[in-house]
Amino acid sequence: MQATLERKPSMTCAEKPAVNWPWQVKTAELATENNAIKQALLALNKPLYVAKIDEGNGCLGISHHAGVAAGKVTSESAQVLAFSQALQAEDLGDEAFKQHHGVKYAYHGGAMANGIASVELVVALGKAGFLCSFGAAGLVPDAVEDAIRRIQAELPNGPYAVNLIHAPQEEALERGAVERFIKLGVNTVEASAYLGLTEHIVWYRVAGLSKNADGSINIGNKVIAKVSRTEVGRRFMEPAPQKFLDKLLSQGKITQQQAELAKSVPMADDITAEADSGGHTDNRPFLTLLPTIIALRDEIQAQFNYPTALRVGAGGGIGTPEAALAAFNMGAAYIVLGSVNQACVEAGASDYTRKLLSTVEMADVTMAPAADMFEMGVKLQVVKRGSMFAMRAKKLYDLYVAYDSIEAIPADERSKIEKQIFRANLDDIWQGTVDFFQERDPEMLARAMDNPKRKMALIFRWYLGLSSRWSNIGEQGREMDYQIWAGPSLGAFNSWVKGTYLADYQKRTAVDVATHMLKGAAYLQRINQLKMQGLSLSTELASYSVAN
Length: 548
Description:
globular, 21 helices
């Protein structure tokens, strides 16, 4: 059977060779059958040489070995027409990112709130050489501390990160998280959902600064900032604002030396351009967002001339090797996956939710009001298949905008939401809300006592907050209220693995998924190199499947 690897009809070896390589390969070592060619292409740790075997029919073969031509091509040798260097999964991305975080791969498992990016997920990826952030957002400080201690016991030398989410409505949680991070020696955080800098993220960053023996600055507390807007990205690329440094100095949280050092370092080491992701998102396509953030980084670097330039990674919309390779080829230092990992066995989601996630298609997502920024009208991306959460959350937000208090809501409207959404009297829900915030954030509760509008917001947030917890624990009877964060990348992933063992959600492990994602990207890069040298490959040879 002749291999389905051939020259383009418009280009022949004699008339228009793509490259005049001065190399030859032994004819006996050439792979010419489909299976042998596929295996040769998949051997990413070896260079690849393509040569013409038969001048008559143009049949091509592949070898991993070649030598400099010693003379005229004979029947026992063939001239090399195309070449691809060895390129493995660990070769993709920015080497500085890998060294900085002590990882093998330019891959970051992004944080998913409420512990969905679980201890188990962080540990599994960390032990395999991948960085992953624990989903601390939405958890009380004590729960976060327990999780950090468990991660540190499993990964005493890293790598791991912990999520620090902007909480404008619950400042005590953000402050409490930073206190625990500093206390426990967490040296990497993933800052997400920030609308601007706060004194808490500045405190974390600056509190880790010190001077090395050679006079250079040691950055002990690393920050990976996830942004989707240039104005926010700029804040993280610039040094800490003086107003925050002055405030932290007056509180005794940083030293004078740290305040001075802070003027010479950016607020982050890495910037993730967060495109159309699950959860908090501005739905930006990374084809436009990534180059914009990279250009901003170059502008800031020219202005401040940092000894080490910030790195820019890409997250959101990456669910296939093709998307991963596109990000790397566009200049991403690393890639970030979240929605795809949520369906893996290590994720802190219920079996019901993970099974549902494995069926999601690209169009099965929509925007809904966010619990943590409900009053601000901020939205996040969730799954709409198999859930009425998005519709019900929007109903609550519309009522919040239309009325100034629970009492002002018409009786028939109140009755509907009590029966269909809360399944309880709103007065009882308020009492449960009081008990919840007494433990979580008493300051939040105090601000609502004499403010009917804020009280209404907290009651509505009861539903929005618990809906994600119901999904995580698999609350029976509440399936139609599950709030499941995901972007269209999950649908793309499900389409890619259809018909393979990874279509089964019970067989999806985070390390296996990440490995296939990067290996597939490296394979496709090899294919692209060959195509650019004039080769035409069959669909079977040109594609990468997890079955490989």
